[in-house]
User: Fold this.
Amino acid sequence: MGVAIYVHRYWLYRGFPPPVTPKGVARGTLRDVGFFSPALHQHRHYLVYLPPGYAAQAAAGRRFPVMYLLHAPPGRPDGFVQAGALAVDSDVLVHRHAIRPMIFVIPYGHSGNFGNDTEWANDAAGPYESFVLDVVRNVDRRFATLRGRRYRGIAGLSEGGYGALNIGLRHLRSFSVLESWSGYYAQTRTGPFAHATQAQLNAASPNWYLPRLIPQIHRLGLRVYLYQGVKDEIEPWRIRRFAHQLFEAGVYVRWGYFPGGHDWGLWRRQTPHMLRVASKWFSTPPLRDRLAHAPKGIGRPQHPRAGHPNPRSPRHRRRHRHAGVRA
Assistant:
């Protein structure tokens, strides 16, 4: 939807204390990795977080699941670390055995055009969907990864949330876990899609092309988590409707509203929960949960009917109004 609508409001986290791993908790490692992207024909970078003890465990033959994270303009990869406290949260949760050790990879998606709005798609800004797949291949060559789709997920915030859904759905053989943090589900004529045809918009809109993926989703299995703040500009009916679309397509889907707007205050608070969700889903095959549950609203919905397939039932309205926050 573009920079003009989805603004990060960085001023909302300027007062956050710098994230610091507590004493007695082993720290993971952050690396800036350069490589040549065949898609972009350029030398590009990504930020990688390696869990505590990675080097010794990798030398002993252990391999790790990988979660790819997509930022939004004018963001940078280190926003997830500095504003989102991703590395510290992972250190602490691994120390508590609340999540399994995972690798996190954050591509640097700047383009120099359209205010660095790429939509993480193959569009007028460049082939940024293909660039993400270049990053995946490079990470698998360099690091001790579990390479099956079961152990690979993709997430993002705002435009990155849209990108995670669009890339993940278009490459179901590469990803089994998708998370959209305040993302959207349809493309419009803004930014690099300003002059797109209707066919191009449809091809880049998950809510439009999802029905065509049903046979593949049923065969492979897929898990998706969607959430947004209760004060977000995105209309609440959009997340409800897309969650039900995913469910009807055979996806195991969870979705929720949480206190906050479209900003790092919300995303930083929810990062530990999103890490737990990914860790839990990596632990079992994706087909196990296929069609096991209807889409369920989590947190504080703006509408008492949010998240339940039969919203007219008073019993279900009460249950979901007071639903706890869990995976």
Observations:
- The longest helix spans residues 264-282.
- The chain has a mean pLDDT of 86.
- The CA atoms of residues 16 and 222 lie 35 Å apart.
- The longest strand covers residues 29-37.
